[in-house]
Amino acid sequence: MDLKELFVKAKELENKEVVLDGWIRNHRRQKDFGFIDFSDGTCFEHLQIVYDTSLTNFEEVSKILVGSAIHVKGTLVSSSGKQEYEVKAEEVTILGVCPEDYPIQPKRHTREFLREVAYLRPRTNLFQAVFRVRSVAAYAIHNYFQERGFVYFHAPLITASDCEGAGEMFQVTTLPIDKIVNEPDYSKDFFGKMTNLTVSGQLEAETFATAYKKTYTFGPTFRAENSNTKTHAAEFWMIEPEMCFCDLEGDMDVMEDMLKYVVSYCLEHCKEEMEFFNQFVEEGLLEKLNKLVTAKFTRIDYKDVIELLQKADVKWDFAPTYGGDIAKEHEKYITEYFNGPVFIKNWPKEIKAFYMKQNSDGKTVAAVDLEVPGAGELMGGSQREEDYEKLLSRMNELKMDTKSLDWYLNLRKYGTCVHSGFGMGFERLLIYLTGVENIRDVIPYPRTPGNCEY
């Protein structure tokens, strides 16, 4: 029986025999009895196992160390301690011993230390909670799109195109190292051209949107960005929906609806984990998340945001200027000013990607960023440029290789239509959901500069 099932059926199982398999999280030994803090990973709650000298192997059991795997047969009884129920053990069988040098002892460990033993950290309360929420949030995302008729698209991980045009990509090659350094001949490479790990599945997702109307990707993406901040990683997961016959306003509708759905789902299905985060990680987390679920999302043009920031009676570290990006301090001010999430839309085209819809003013594009209280930018999207000539002109203006993206341009020839989409970094969402502020602590095995370990 699993602990999750046991806690659900506890009343009907009281004073009956139960059989459990799991691990020792803590062990308090006395002369004639002992208490085992038991977990099997199926739920956040632990169960106390009580044993005494009636066990035939009492001496052996009393010496079992933290981390060991055990098989327990006993009776579920009402507890006189803090917990509601405990198991009075009749049999305890050792399945896998754990030595004294086991790194995850029942004490407070720093997150920096736990990153050094990332393969063991899911056994701690914090990371058991984090990665369960990661699992539930991923399910919620799929559920949201599947219930609304989106087709799940698996974007290629190896690509010859750079979606964002930033050039910070990991190269994939079968050429020997010396051939790469000294004028590589990519005609002799595996794919016959230079290829890289993808930074985004958006461009490919647009091809499926023009066939299925609504599609989404949810998978790993890669950036060779030499950054050691709390919000950057070389490998991370992205959610990227694409929708035909959908303009920027419709795009924002879906962004808001999806976020509220996922947050609500996690609040409902991870109650113990969310309470834990609220108590031990971020005070006020539950209040913040519940407020978002019922909030009105403001929609405001970029130029109006800049004017608002410039008029604010604030001494900025980075002065807000038209044509510049929105700094963290600006994001914080804007969300506090409007007392909730804010969509900033219609950005200067010079600071946005080539594929975004050019507005009639010739200066801005139909792009949008979502800023949320306590986190800043959480999502970014745009209406895509559906006009072939305008898209080609913009690509030429940026001196892009149009030949390698002829397939993308052809989408504007073959049944073009208004279409939009957005992207959300999954780990950035998890930081917001859990209050755990470092991306290294919301992804199982973080890949950052100088780190590719377990």
Structure description:
- This protein has helices at residues 3-8, 10-13, 58-62, 111-116, 125-147, 177-181, 202-212, 248-269, 271-280, 285-294, 302-311, 328-337, 388-397, 406-410, 426-434; strands at residues 17-29, 33-39, 47-52, 69-78, 85-96, 151-152, 158-159, 171-172, 195-197, 214-222, 235-244, 298-301, 342-348, 364-372, 376-384, 419-425.
- With 454 residues, the chain is of the alpha+beta class.
- The chain has an eight-stranded mixed sheet with strand order 6-10-11-16-15-14-13-12, with helices on both faces. The protein has a five-stranded mixed barrel with strand order 1-2-3-5-4.
- Strand 4 and strand 5 (85-96) form a beta hairpin.
- The longest helix is centred in the first third of the chain and has 23 residues, at 125-147.
What topology emerges from the helices and strands here?
Layout lengths: L2 H6 L1 H4 L3 E13 L3 E7 L7 E6 L5 H5 L6 E10 L6 E12 L14 H6 L8 H23 L3 E2 L5 E2 L11 E2 L4 H5 L13 E3 L4 H11 L1 E9 L12 E10 L3 H22 L1 H10 L4 H10 L3 E4 H10 L16 H10 L4 E7 L15 E9 L3 E9 L3 H10 L8 H5 L8 E7 H9 L20
Parallel strand pairs: 3-5, 6-10, 12-13
Antiparallel strand pairs: 1-2, 1-4, 2-3, 4-5, 7-9, 8-9, 10-11, 11-16, 13-14, 14-15, 15-16
